[in-house]
Amino acid sequence: MELSHLIINNKPSENSNNLLQKNFNKESNDKKVYIETYGCQMNYSDTEIVLSVLSEFGYNETSDIEESDVLLLNTCSIRENAENKVYKRLDDLKKYKTQNPNLVIGILGCMAERLKNDLLKRRKIVDLIVGPDEYRKVPHLIDNLIETGEKGIAIKLSRVETYDDITPVRKKGVTAWISIMRGCDKFCTFCVVPFTRGRERSRNLKNIIDEAKRLSDEGVKDIWLLGQNVNSYKFGDEDFSDLLDKTANAVPNMRLRYTTSHPYDLSMKLLEVMTKHKNICNYIHLPIQSGSDRILNKMNRLYSVEQYMNVMKKAREMMPGVGLSTDIISCFPSETEDEHKMTLDVIREVRYDGAYTFAYSPRENTKAFDMEDRIDEETKNRRLDEIITIQRKISVEINQRLIGKTMPVLIESLSRKSDDFFMARTDCNKSVIVPKEFSYVSESGELNHKKNFHIGDFVNIKINKVNSATLFGDPVL
């Protein structure tokens, strides 16, 4: 699954609690649900769907775990480490079950689909297990548990479920995700997604565009079109390029991005649509996974390194300054030292702005799980470190070239490290730290302090400092 770059903890912070209550919790609801999200952007989007379903059955979200009636973990199975985090979290949650025996604890998402038996047998505190295509059943399973004491399990995969008729519950903000499709048909040999999320099915194109319009009316400035393999979207005779084109026309004042693409499906038509619209961001996340054709074939990736590099070259020709990022799996079974060096060569040639890099993690039920010639841990650590080191060096070099340049950014949120700074984002998806208050000299020569920017503002920023992941700058009046 291309989407699982990082663990996202979706617990609302104390600072967001009032905002959360004000913006979508219903005064008439008298039950509380606390939910944490692990994994990819699709899981984050699914959490919004679950909250919407539960809202219709009397539940409001709470950021206080101790006042919750229901506690849900929306989980990821893409790598062993992601599952281990959830298992550890379940151990931490035992105390809440002891304090409140009536507390309902549920596992949602990919772990529910993949490890249902283990979760029920070994984790006695788990009351519900619900897979990604069964979220409509969550309130009914809770009610049945309360009435009968019977633990609930619903994990059947669907070929038609897209939750197209459900309006996700979103917290107030300037960025939003729109899920346009679910599942994947590619069956990469390392990936569990076809087994945990099922086959590809796409939402109604008109409904997606209507959702984008509604978000624009609500003040959202930046939306991501989301899918496990987003550019394999197909609704009738219209493909992802058509959807992106029509969405850009429908909301011309909103920034549009998308994730995640599979190189096999990224067409020249899509690149042409991106160059056609100013509001489609010049950013492409395109996983290469390996620089070796032999390894790509063993992964069942359906493209060659040459084909991939041609797409990268064309993207840079058509969109100078495009932001490029990728996924890389190091040490896939039987990867040789020369093949590892081929991956390093791809990184050096493409010069990505950033990369999500992982050592291969075996997943049961995938074809790669039974492959021989596993790489030892020492070699895994060394090769992965070499990839990270080279990519970090390139990221710094690319960012250093931006020092002194002025760039338009969208202010998205407060900085995670300090409330005295904003976090903003460039068109090519670079994070920029901007001071909330800054000094400037007026035409009369008087020194002034200005503090009039807000989340949601587009601001021109002059970059004065960088590191491998972040830019720092000051507003330009």
Question: Brief description of this entry?
Answer:
The chain has 477 residues and is α/β, with parallel strands linked by helices. It contains 14 helices and 23 strands.
What this model shows, in words?
The chain is α/β, with parallel strands linked by helices. Helix content is 34%, strand content 23%. It contains 14 helices and 23 strands. The strands form seven sheets. The chain has a six-stranded parallel β-sheet, with helices on both faces. Helix 8 packs parallel to helix 9, helix 9 packs parallel to helix 10 and helix 10 runs parallel beside helix 12. The longest helix has 24 residues.
Low-confidence stretches are 1-23
Q: How many DSSP-defined strands? A: 23
Overall 3D shape: globular
* Largest sheet composition: 6 strands, parallel
Highlighted features:
single chain, 477 residues, alpha/beta, six-stranded parallel β-sheet, 14 helices, 23% strand, disordered N terminus
List the topology elements.
Layout: H1 17-23, E1 31-37, H2 41-55, E2 59-61, E3 70-75, H3 80-99, E4 104-109, H4 110-114, H5 116-122, E5 128-130, H6 138-148, E6 152-154, E7 175-179, E8 181-182, H7 193-196, E9 201-202, H8 205-217, E10 222-226, E11 234-235, E12 238-239, H9 240-250, E13 255-259, H10 268-276, E14 283-285, H11 293-299, H12 305-318, E15 323-330, H13 337-350, E16 354-359, H14 377-400, E17 406-414, E18 421-426, E19 431-435, E20 438-441, E21 447-450, E22 458-466, E23 470-475
Parallel strand pairs: 1-2, 1-3, 3-4, 4-5, 5-6, 7-10, 10-13, 14-15, 15-16, 19-23
Antiparallel strand pairs: 8-9, 11-12, 17-18, 17-22, 18-19, 20-21, 22-23
Helix pairs in contact: 8-9, 9-10, 10-12, 13-14
